[in-house]
Amino acid sequence: MKKQIILGIALVLILGAIGSFVYYDYHYAPKRTLTFLPKKTLKVAIQPFKGTDKGSVLEVKKGIERYYGLQVTILPDIPLPAHAKNTHILKKYHLKLPVRYRADSLIAYLWDTKPPAYDYIIGLTNQDISTTKPKKPKWLYTDWGIFGLGYRPGPTCIVSTYRLYRYANLAQMRTRLRKIAIHELGHNLNLKHCPHSNCVMQSARESMKTIDTEPESLCDSCKNIVKRKFIVNFPEEQMGKL
User: Fold this and answer.
1) How many domains does the chain have?
2) Spatial CA neighbour of 45 closest among 71, 69, 63
3) Catalytic one of 184, 206, 216, 237
4) pLDDT tens digits for 59-83?
5) Active site residue 184
6) What distance in Å separates the CA atoms of residue 99 and residue 84, rounded to the nearest whole number?
7) For the segment 1-51, what is each residue's pLDDT rounded down to a tens digit?
């Protein structure tokens, strides 16, 4: 009888200990896991469209890797989607402008075709790209040529090399290209246009001069926004400004 009582007490103590452990694990472990769960490392890929020169692709890769500290994959090139041409706008407004590709259609296309392995896709083309700006005269800004466009926030952006060769040697062109790629990926990371002149996220204001005079880096305010949300190493903090 005594053995049964002792065994019963021991069983109660064991079950109590197990119950305490389960209670602790259920109520506290999830909090510890969430608190110390590391931020997701971003996976970025460049999607070249046919006709884009390899040097430009490598320059964008170098710029993103060197500034943001992210590893970038280059995908096989693909043809530009025919539906993205601006021909419907030209017909509507009877405009005699060169055929361009609509930037908003391209970033939507990249989103639809984005491989699931990557968080962000940077489209790169040598063709002229355009968008509609809410400005007058309407005939001029309905199909306005631009350097790049990106969702804010969102997984895709597009950069064009078409306008970057103007009044520039190869080194200047490549610097412009890196700045625009850093800028458009910044929009994907939810950065707005920045009012500071010492930031690559400032609006181009329809001028190549803005691109040439701005730094190839984010201001501290924009950089901190990215740091708070993502794993971005910003190796330039150790190696100096680019």
Assistant:
1) 1
2) 71
3) 184
4) 999 999 999 999 999 999 999 999 9
5) yes
6) 10
7) 555 555 455 444 444 443 333 222 222 223 222 333 446 789 999 999 999
